[in-house]
Design goal:
The protein has 120 residues and is an alpha+beta fold. It is 34% helix and 25% strand.
Length: 120
């Protein structure tokens, strides 16, 4: 199962990321914008995700993804059970969430252009 330490390792390697504790939750943010939040029991991770695509993601895989807390539904946010994803999936979710909160220049400079396929 993915742990908070696994998420921390990936998130803290991303430029401009800071870790904060907010209401007993570990969060990762750029400036004032939170892009990852881990539940206090470390079983679930909230992450930045386009609100207009949230329902489709949850409907496609309800055993993995779920709605945020009612107070967070107004944000671009969704949650995933950490036990339902592997290291590669976690990395993709964290990096995609981070891309939502940094400038395109910063994201491309660190991770490259997401539209370009990497050679194998």
């Amino acid at each position: 199962m993915i742990t908070a330490d696994d998420v921390r390792r990936v998130a803290m390697a991303l430029p401009r990321t800071e870790e904060r504790i907010v209401r007993d939750r570990v969060t990762f943010r750029v400036g004032r914008i939170v892009y990852i939040g881990i539940s206090p029991d470390e079983t679930s991770m909230g992450f930045a995700f386009p609100k207009e695509e949230r329902a489709a993601l949850i409907a496609a895989e309800p055993e993995r993804f779920h709605m945020p807390r009612p107070s967070d539904e107004r944000y671009n946010w969704v949650r995933v059970w950490l036990g339902a994803i592997d290291e590669t999936e976690m990395r993709e979710l964290v990096e995609d969430a981070w891309r939502m909160v940094v400038s395109k220049r910063v994201a491309t400079g660190h991770l490259g252009d997401p539209g370009l396929k990497k050679p194998r």
